[in-house]
């Protein structure tokens, strides 16, 4: 829970030409740091980091007594003892000079520009001036190897096998000195089996712990032992040695006081940690510190240094080869510098390691790690003498060792830590934040109900501004959760300058209130207002010290402190709303120093240094919401639970209980409710890693007593309890979570038996589950989300030309998380508790990563069992598969796991889940087409290519039917990639090493199985963008002109090699193309027959289907339309187009969709008028580009000329709606290679598009009217299909689209095209009958089109006249009678007369008139060429104008 942050800081020694630093040591308060060089002693003050004392020994002293080797502080920091290489011990006195207030005093310059203006430039901390003097020196016989302090004495180990005890006045305490040859050693404390040392040995390393009651020693032969005595005075007659069994290469040692552990470093770069077995008194291996291969796959050398943090929560370990690492209490590696990126210049992390640490020590509160770096390499790797692949030649020089780039200097590595390391009450907060020495790092976006909690109460007028800022902060924090950014909150200089370092921090349940406590006093912060609140009276801030942590209760801050003025221990409560002042605080005096505080709802527990536990009730004073009071409920002595009060790591309250304290038929949920009502919360204590449960029960006399303790688990580092139970997820929110370091995570999970389950009454109500946890150290448990949240270090390397810390990686923080749901399910299924596992999984179905959890569950079991070298007697995989099969995502989970697993493990998996082909067919039947596509990739590796092709064809048909265009596109590419030679050969299934030949599909859909003979129907011309190969025989040219491609489709070319999307280059490529194109053509025919023009357009755009060519071939078959009424309804339904309102019978104002406005009347044709002069002027001003046009989209404009807006609109109108039978070699519609979405985007910005009018309130708006699919977008799609249909000659469907769009100009164009076609008579008959169907239809929704039908009566009559002119008079008698009867239902049409002054235009562009203005009934004839046409459009036209293929390509005619 400690993490590096930033760059290390270099400390420049004040002396020039001083000796090399060899040792570093902090005093007991960790405020003074002593740096020992070979000839000097320098004392630094921690904050500000400045030197106070610098003492250098004379050259004569160094030569006579020897160089400095090690040092030790006296417990009261009044003396320092330095051991020399010559076996001498030099004592120094340290006295604080009280006559001088501070050692450093800053004075402002006389220059006004250099005066200090910021408060941060003023030192509030008084640096104490020290008087340093050498007291005396003594000679220690035998030579000094190590030195430690025990109370007010020195314990010195010598090379002659003695451990001598000296007083600080230099006197030897002979009576209590130890001789190793007289100390019995054994593996436990059974003295009868103890044997003294036979060989001559001596102690090289020594460490003492008063809480362990003994010394850990390292002998010169690599063995280690623990010296313990029956008395605290350590009488030599009662001292006994206990061997640390299992290691004989020990190099160093360090003791953990709080958890009572002994850590030893070994020569093989490993660490081993021992604990005391309370039953036998021997040393048992607690855990080992093994360097993971992912950080360094080798041996970085012997372990040379071990240091526990001041709170005993982490262990720093350094190697002789360089680098350091950080480990949690029970063996989880938090960070390792060997795995950091040091750049390309460092190729060997051992021979070129930047860090070559000689000694280290932690400063105040563990925020800084002081290290001494050595430039001399002590270990560069071992070389095997028996294996030398490159023997050295004679005379070859050995390469010089590269010194450390940091040199012989002192460095400070900054750290941040989790608040639960010193304030365990924060484990109940589901927020993630870290605390540094002068700032906080927040990532508090875990709780999704935070905004609900804030809005639960109605804010007052004063709180409204704060609430608004809070909500905006939550919105910003939700973004930081995604980007993993940290919010850094700097503690104000006014507080931190005199109260450094920060000791305790606390956060409320909502994550918006923070509090920090340093050396004295405290300050709190609001995330909503972004403001700090500190004591107004600084003397009140200095009068108390927070000793037992702090926590929030609603808007009140609770602290455990020591009053420096009154010399008493107190529990104080400060309201947040008022100013910080002691007069507003509630003070409760306690008997001893407060060590820990915690609460559960309105119950607070206080643990003091006298091992006394007090239980308080917190309540707000009635009538005064700014006053919070405490009422003591009960006190209990817990001295028997721990050896020392400092060994209690955490204490908390919980409603969780064991089986014996609940009624027999009472469920866990009922038990919690009953305990909450009866105030019987249990105590949970972590005592040196042992989790103890002390239950509180109400007796028959209505007295609450604590029962005997129950040990729940061992090696426990952290404990998490849910803040409040959740009815929807009772298992997760009523569980107890423990982290046990390298042993992983343990969960005390409740089991809820069914109401009718009476056969399993023997089962316990709770079970302790264990599962490993890798690559994360948990700092927060999100119970409802089933997520473990943690932090890890990340490094960034910046280029720097300077030699120093800037060349090292820059350390940053990264938030990490892990899902733990699959771990719980696996452990329950393993214990045959599948029913409970199913209940937990059912409660988590709403989690977005639930399927991922099932996938992790299946994958972890598969990897473990399939790769096992030994047979598994009771395989777990079948049970896991049966469990996952009960969820709808079973098939998708299996295929996801399959694709992420090695192919060699597939047979083992499918032996349990069943055949992959059967699962594929199940997906097809369940419409799970995305999953079926994933199975298709699996089947490609398991079955022959012919089978894969058959399955892919089925899936392609299904994808086309469901409109999954992306999936269909991928499947078509997959089919083209299959080698036809593999399909023809009868081979065994493919090798298991074959990889999928195409990426995973994107979208789903379903299809049925079709025989090849059913799809080989019509000849399909190869598409220009399809993948094909050179054919053996050229395809014949089409006989009919309708089969030729439009310009938009690009003429097809025979290619001898396939494109990059297909590796197929065989001779049968054309057959593959024919096979796929036939499937596409069949589906297009199905869509057109069903009237699904929208899907037909999307199908063409996504799959690059040449729609125009296909529609030309189908113009006389599937594109023929008989029921126009049904077709109009299908267009409205397919495009979700609103039906027009019922038009007024008197007059209808119709606005053309082509930016031309015509007025029509529904009853009298005399009201149907057009200003001929105005129309002639508009048509005369038309700018028509008659030259060659590049291939462009629908309604594209010429970019080569500058025209006015009116000319541009007119050109687009002519280009889009006035063309008759375009030349396919020149004119084009919208390119079929473009996506429909891009087309719509371009057309929406076109000025000529007339958006449909808004729907009136009387007409309901369709349900699927959305912003991204508005009527303008669908109008563009309809116009795109209209142009495609006209160009392809599908005039019946084009007429339907024109009617829906109410586009009169398009009707004119269609009518002219119908009369000029090769099959004009049949087409005109169908169009004429269709118009009559719509006109006389009784469909209620078609009534709105009556006005438009009346407006195009001239075109309908033109069709009628055309049919009349083609038929003999005798044969047309009866049809004419029928037509006359039909026309009786319509109003008579009055013919327009033209003024005799000027030539006239036809009244419509489709009704021919002669030069005199009379209507001509003669059949249409071929028009003259545009070059012979006069500029005016009003002369010589009793004929329709057509553009025939023989016409000049550069011409353009308006008809």
Description:
With 1455 residues, this protein is an alpha+beta fold. 25% of the residues lie in helices and 24% in strands. The chain has a six-stranded mixed beta sheet, with no helix packed on it. Helix 28 (1291-1301) packs antiparallel against helix 29 (1304-1315).
Strand order of the largest sheet: 16-15-20-19-18-17
Main sheet: strands, sense, barrel: 6 strands, mixed
Quote the distance from N terminus to C terminus. Answer: 84 Å
How much of the sequence lies in strands comes to 15-25%
> How many DSSP-defined strands?
61
Stretches with pLDDT under 50, minimum 5 residues: 384-390, 446-458, 473-482, 660-666, 986-1069, 1144-1270, 1369-1455
State the helicity in percent bands: 10-25%
- Categorize the overall geometry: elongated
Radius of gyration in whole Å, from Cα? 45 Å
Q: Write down the overall mean pLDDT.
A: 77
What is the count of DSSP helices, taking H or I runs of 4+ residues?
33
Helix/strand/pairing class, anyone? alpha+beta
């Amino acid at each position: 829970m400690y993490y590096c942050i930033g760059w290390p800081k270099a400390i420049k020694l004040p002396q020039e030409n001083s000796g090399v630093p060899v040792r570093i040591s902090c005093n007991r308060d960790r405020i003074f740091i002593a740096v020992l060089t070979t000839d000097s002693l320098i004392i630094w003050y921690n904050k500000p980091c400045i030197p106070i004392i610098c003492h250098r020994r004379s050259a004569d002293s160094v030569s006579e007594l020897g160089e400095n080797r090690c040092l030790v502080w006296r417990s009261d920091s009044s003396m320092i003892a330095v051991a020399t290489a010559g076996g001498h011990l030099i004592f120094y006195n340290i006295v604080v000079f009280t006559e001088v207030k501070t050692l450093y005093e800053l004075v402002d310059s006389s220059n006004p520009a250099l005066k200090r203006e910021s408060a941060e430039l003023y030192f509030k901390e008084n640096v104490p001036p020290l008087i340093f003097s050498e007291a005396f020196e003594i000679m220690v016989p035998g030579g000094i190897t190590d030195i430690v302090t025990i109370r007010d004495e020195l314990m010195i180990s010598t090379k002659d096998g003695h451990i001598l005890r000296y007083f600080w006045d230099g006197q030897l305490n002979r009576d209590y000195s130890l001789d190793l040859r007289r100390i019995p050693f054994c593996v436990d404390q059974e003295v009868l089996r103890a044997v003294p040392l036979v060989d001559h040995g001596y102690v090289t390393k020594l460490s003492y712990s008063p809480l362990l009651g003994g010394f850990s020693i390292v002998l010169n032969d690599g063995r280690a032992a623990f010296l313990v005595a029956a008395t605290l005075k350590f009488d030599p007659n009662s001292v006994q040695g206990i061997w640390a069994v299992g290691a004989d290469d020990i190099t160093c040692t360090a003791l953990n006081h709080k958890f009572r552990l002994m850590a030893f470093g070994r020569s093989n770069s490993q660490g081993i940690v021992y604990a005391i077995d309370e039953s036998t008194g021997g040393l048992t291996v607690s855990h080992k510190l093994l360097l993971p291969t992912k950080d360094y796959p080798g041996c970085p050398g012997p372990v040379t240094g071990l240091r526990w943090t001041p709170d005993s929560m982490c262990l720093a370990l350094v190697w002789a080869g360089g680098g350091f690492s950080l480990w949690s209490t029970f063996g989880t590696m938090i960070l390792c510098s060997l795995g950091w990126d040091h750049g390309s210049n460092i190729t060997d992390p051992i021979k070129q390691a930047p860090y070559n640490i000689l000694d280290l020590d932690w400063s105040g509160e563990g925020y800084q790690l002081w290290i001494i770096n050595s430039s001399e390499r002590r270990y560069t790797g071992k070389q095997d003498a028996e294996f030398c692949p490159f023997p050295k030649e004679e005379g070859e020089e050995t390469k010089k060792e590269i010194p450390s780039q940091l040199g012989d200097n002192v460095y400070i590595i900054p750290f941040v830590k989790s608040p639960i390391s010193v304030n365990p009450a924060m484990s109940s907060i589901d927020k993630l934040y870290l605390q540094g020495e002068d700032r906080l790092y927040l990532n508090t976006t875990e709780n999704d109900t935070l905004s609900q909690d804030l809005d639960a109460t109605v804010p007052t007028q004063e709180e409204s501004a704060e609430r608004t800022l809070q909500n905006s902060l939550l919105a910003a924090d939700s973004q930081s959760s995604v980007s993993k950014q940290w919010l850094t909150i700097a503690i104000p200089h006014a507080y931190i300058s005199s109260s450094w370092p920060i000791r305790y921090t606390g956060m409320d349940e909502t994550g918006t209130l923070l509090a920090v406590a340093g050396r004295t006093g405290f300050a709190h912060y609001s995330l909503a207002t972004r403001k700090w609140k500190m004591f107004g009276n600084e003397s009140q801030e200095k009068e108390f010290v927070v000793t037992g942590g702090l926590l929030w209760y609603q808007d009140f801050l609770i602290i455990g402190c020591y009053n420096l003025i009154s010399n008493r221990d107190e529990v104080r409560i400060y309201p947040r709303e008022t100013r910080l002042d002691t007069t507003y605080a509630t003070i409760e005096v306690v008997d001893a120093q407060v060590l820990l505080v915690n609460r559960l709802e309105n119950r607070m527990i206080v643990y003091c240094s006298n091992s006394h536990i007090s239980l308080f009730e917190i309540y707000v004073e009635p009538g005064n919401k700014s006053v919070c009071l405490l009422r003591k409920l009960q006190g209990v002595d817990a001295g028997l639970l721990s050896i020392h009060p400092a060994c209690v790591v955490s204490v908390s309250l919980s409603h969780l209980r064991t089986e014996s304290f609940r009624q027999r038929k009472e469920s866990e949920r009922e038990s919690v409710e009953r305990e909450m009502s009866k105030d019987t919360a249990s105590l949970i204590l972590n005592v040196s890693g042992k989790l103890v449960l002390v239950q509180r029960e109400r007796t028959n006399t209505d007295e609450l007593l604590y029962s005997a303790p129950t040990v729940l688990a061992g090696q426990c580092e952290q404990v998490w309890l849910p803040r409040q139970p959740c009815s929807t997820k009772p298992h997760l929110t009523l569980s107890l979570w423990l982290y046990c370091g390298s042993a992983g995570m343990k969960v005390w999970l409740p089991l809820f038996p069914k109401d009718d389950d009476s056969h399993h009454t023997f089962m316990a109500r709770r079970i302790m589950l264990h599962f490993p946890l890798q690559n994360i150290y948990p700092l927060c448990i999100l119970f409802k989300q089933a997520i473990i949240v943690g932090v890890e270090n990340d490094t960034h390397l910046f280029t720097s030309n300077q030699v120093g810390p800037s060349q090292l990686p820059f350390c940053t923080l990264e938030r990490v998380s892990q899902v733990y749901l699959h771990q719980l399910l696996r452990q329950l299924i393993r214990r045959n508790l599948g029913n409970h596992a199913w209940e937990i999984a059912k409660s988590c179905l709403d989690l977005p990563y639930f399927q991922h959890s099932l996938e992790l569950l299946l994958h972890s079991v598969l990897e473990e069992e399939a790769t096992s070298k030994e047979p598994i007697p009771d395989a777990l995989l079948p049970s896991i598969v049966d469990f996952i099969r009960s969820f709808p995502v079973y098939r998708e989970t299996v295929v996801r796991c399959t694709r992420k697993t090695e192919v060699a493990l597939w047979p083992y998996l499918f032996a349990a889940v069943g055949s992959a082909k059967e699962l594929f067919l199940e997906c097809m039947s369940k419409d799970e087409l995305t999953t079926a596509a994933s199975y298709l990739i699996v089947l490609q590796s398991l079955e022959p290519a012919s089978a894969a092709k058959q399955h892919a064809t089925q899936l392609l048909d299904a994808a086309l039917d469901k409109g999954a265009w992306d999936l269909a596109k991928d499947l078509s590419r997959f089919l083209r990639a299959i080698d036809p030679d593999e399909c023809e050969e009868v081979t065994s299934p493919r090798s298991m090493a074959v990889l999928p030949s195409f990426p995973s599909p994107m979208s789903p859909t379903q299809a049925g199985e079709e025989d090849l003979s059913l799809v080989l129907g019509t000849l399909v011309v190869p598409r220009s963008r399809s993948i094909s190969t050179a054919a053996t025989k050229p395809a014949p040219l089409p006989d009919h002109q309708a089969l030729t491609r439009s310009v938009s489709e690009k003429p097809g070319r025979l290619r001898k090699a396939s494109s990059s999307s297909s590796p197929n280059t065989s001779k049968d490529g054309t057959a593959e193309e024919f096979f796929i194109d036939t499937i596409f053509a069949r589906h297009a025919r199905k869509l057109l027959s069903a009237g699904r023009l929208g899907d037909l357009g999307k199908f063409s755009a996504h799959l690059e289907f040449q729609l125009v060519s296909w529609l030309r071939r189908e113009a006389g078959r599937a594109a023929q339309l008989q029921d126009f009424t049904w077709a109009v309804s299908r267009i409205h339904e397919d495009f979700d187009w609103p039906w027009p309102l019922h038009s007024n019978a008197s007059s209808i104002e119709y606005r053309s969709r082509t930016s031309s406005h015509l007025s029509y009347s529904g009853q009298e044709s005399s009201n149907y008028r057009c200003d001929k002069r105005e129309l002639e002027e508009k048509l005369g001003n038309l700018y028509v580009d008659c030259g060659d046009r590049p291939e462009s989209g629908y309604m594209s404009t010429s970019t080569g000329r500058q025209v006015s807006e009116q000319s541009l609109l007119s050109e687009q109108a002519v280009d889009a709606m006035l063309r008759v039978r375009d030349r396919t070699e020149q004119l084009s519609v919208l390119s079929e290679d473009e996506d429909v979405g891009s087309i719509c985007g371009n057309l929406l910005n076109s000025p000529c598009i007339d958006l449909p009018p808004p729907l009136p309130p009387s007409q309901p708006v369709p349900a699927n009217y959305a912003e991204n699919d508005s009527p303008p977008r669908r109008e563009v799609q309809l116009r795109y299909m209209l142009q495609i249909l006209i160009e392809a000659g599908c005039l019946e469907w084009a007429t339907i689209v024109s009617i829906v769009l109410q586009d009169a100009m398009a009707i004119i164009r269609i009518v002219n095209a119908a009369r000029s076609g090769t099959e004009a008579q049949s087409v005109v008959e169908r169009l004429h009958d269709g118009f009559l169907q719509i006109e006389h239809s009784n469909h209620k929704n078609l009534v709105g089109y009556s006005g438009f039908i009346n407006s195009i009566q001239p075109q309908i009559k033109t069709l009628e006249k055309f049919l009349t002119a083609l038929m003999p008079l005798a044969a047309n008698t009866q049809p004419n009678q029928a037509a006359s009867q039909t026309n009786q239902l319509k109003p008579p049409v009055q013919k327009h007369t033209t003024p005799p002054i000027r030539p006239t235009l036809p009244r419509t562009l489709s009704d021919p008139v002669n030069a005199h203005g009379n209507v001509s009934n003669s059949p249409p004839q071929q028009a003259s060429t545009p070059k012979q046409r006069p500029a005016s459009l009003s002369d010589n036209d009793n004929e329709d104008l057509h553009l025939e293929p023989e016409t000049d390509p550069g011409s353009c005619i308006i008809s």
